[in-house]
């Protein structure tokens, strides 16, 4: 395979299984296309300008050897597709979790898990306030979690947490390839990110925690949760309106 297609291949690999099963008769995910589109666009309103700004300022960037070289707003085509393929896969998994676990997780589980994640992410944002990636990803994640927990009191939030924990394996595999193609060759807790080779997406370690899970910045956990939760916020809003 031409290596310039590698980032594209990762995106399509993440999308393939959910897309193929979207017409499965029990889940019928394809029926929710309006909600999916709304959630994805809501997320992109925040994430595209953020991504473009960080790319422009060298907080992260893209290896020309692994992309097609087609750009819009300073971002490669593959990065735009990332913000379509990943939310699709996340929301599809979310619907599967809801189908196979129709009873929502307990309020206690949701409150403890959400409060813990919000508190931890806010603490990281404060302690590492001078690290742009860490601070922004963590503070926004904490704010959105707090809104769902104590303002909107979203009754579907527990399903989000279960889905996110299920997604950890594919999350670290796909992001591992993006941040170090042979990611499994590195320590699980990697404190030497400067030694990582063959990065499709590279990071300026002055602006993150400097800790990697294999090759994936630890900060990506909160970035990914924020992206998923924001997409789900728009998705659920449309579903609720359609059922009213």
In short:
The protein is mostly helical and 244 residues long. It has one domain. 61% of the residues lie in helices and 7% in strands.
How large, in whole angstroms, is the Cα Rg?
18 Å
N-to-C span: 49 Å
Q: Could you give the order of the helices and strands?
A: HHEEEHHHHHEEEEH
Going by helix content, strand content and strand pairing, the class is mainly alpha
Strand order of the largest sheet: 4-6-7
Low-pLDDT stretches are: none
- Report the biggest beta sheet as strand number plus sense, adding barrel if it closes: 3 strands, antiparallel
Question: Mind explaining what this structure looks like?
Answer:
The structure is a single chain. The chain has 244 residues and is mainly alpha-helical. The protein has one domain (3-243). The chain has helices at residues 6-20, 33-56, 77-100, 107-127, 132-151, 157-166, 168-179, 220-243; strands at 60-62, 71-72, 75-76, 189-190, 201-203, 212-213, 216-217. The strands form three sheets. Strands 4-6-7 form a three-stranded antiparallel sheet. Helix 3 packs across helix 8 (220-243). The model has no long low-confidence stretch (mean pLDDT 96).
List keywords for this structure.
three-stranded antiparallel sheet, two-stranded antiparallel ribbon, mainly alpha
Topology:
Elements: H1 6-20, H2 33-56, E1 60-62, E2 71-72, E3 75-76, H3 77-100, H4 107-127, H5 132-151, H6 157-166, H7 168-179, E4 189-190, E5 201-203, E6 212-213, E7 216-217, H8 220-243
Antiparallel strand pairs: 1-5, 2-3, 4-6, 6-7
């Amino acid at each position: 395979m031409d290596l310039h297609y590698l980032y594209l291949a990762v995106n399509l690999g993440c999308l393939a299984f959910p897309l193929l099963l979207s017409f499965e008769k029990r889940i019928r995910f394809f029926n929710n296309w309006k909600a999916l589109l709304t959630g994805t666009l809501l997320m992109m309103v925040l994430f595209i300008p953020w991504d473009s700004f960080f790319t422009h300022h060298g907080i992260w960037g893209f290896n020309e050897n692994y992309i097609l070289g087609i750009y819009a707003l300073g971002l490669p085509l593959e990065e735009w597709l990332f913000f379509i393929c990943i939310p699709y896969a996340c929301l599809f998994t979310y619907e599967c979790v809801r189908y196979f676990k129709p009873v929502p997780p307990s309020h206690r589980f949701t409150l403890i898990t959400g409060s813990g994640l919000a508190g931890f992410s806010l603490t990281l944002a404060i302690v590492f306030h001078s690290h742009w990636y860490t601070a922004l990803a963590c503070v926004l994640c904490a704010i959105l979690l707090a809104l769902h927990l104590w303002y909107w009191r979203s009754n579907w939030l527990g399903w989000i947490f279960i889905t996110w924990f299920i997604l950890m394996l594919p999350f670290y595999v796909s992001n591992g390839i993006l941040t170090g193609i042979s990611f499994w060759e590195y320590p699980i807790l990697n404190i030497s990110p400067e030694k990582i080779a063959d990065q499709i997406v590279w990071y300026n370690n002055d602006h993150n925690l400097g800790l990697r899970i294999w090759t994936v910045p630890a900060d990506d956990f909160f970035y990914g949760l924020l992206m998923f939760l924001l997409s789900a916020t728009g998705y659920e809003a449309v579903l609720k309106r359609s059922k009213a």
